[in-house]
Amino acid sequence: MEDITKQRLSWFELVDRYTSRSLTKQTDVLLALSGIARSTAESTSDEYYAGLWKSHFSHCLLWASKWHVGQGFTQHSRPSDYLAPSWSWASIKGPVHYLSWINGYWYTFNAEPDPAYVPKLIDVSLQTSSDLYGILKDGSVVMEGKVGLVYSRQEAYATPMDSTHSSYTSGPQDRLSLYGVGGAGTPGKIGEIRYDVPLCSDCAPVDTIRLVWLLCCMNSKRSSDGKMGTFAIALQGEECDVAQQIFTTVPTRFRRVGVAWGIDSSFWERAATTTLTII
């Protein structure tokens, strides 16, 4: 494995370990890693944006909140005090990690994704208090990539069947199914999503529909049978009701709400290539 690949995966593991700790002040989430980030930037000549790296920015976007029904639904939130832009893992209060089925394991990591499935990073804007590696006041990115509209339907989550949480009732445990129009032009399941902040049963009763836009970020390696999956981040319009825009236009300003996977590459054949701003 090349050193650059080891370095990327090591950073992802650092994010996992670091966000699993309790912070005295959540607003210090980036400040606490500033020393390591600065040292990494100096040794690699890479650019650092709110916990993510320019050289593999689209891959860095594919973080996930580390939640599960066995741990309840109160671990994760986006605090009212500004922490970071929604596309950064630092915007979330709670454990965060990079999923193994997106990254691959150490020896199946896709270090060279197909450019057709990687969005272009056009601009990054960060407003800092004094240090680029420290506390942020505001931030956004402008990207151009494949964007498609899908929806999730709230299901009844599984519940633990014993005190050890070793078995569960049927139902999703850390994800929901995504539905949309596939490559063949027929509606159906197109992938799975994990929301950054899971909604409780009172907030999202069973069968609640939630519309999201997917921005394609990366592809997997092609399997022996020629199939290739893709991964995306899920977005919602900054201020408007996405449901009102199904037949009009794609919003231009978004917030990240989740990460999606298991999307066949054919889904993007019907997607539009769009320039958008994520805040």
TrEMBL record:
Protein name as annotated: Uncharacterized protein
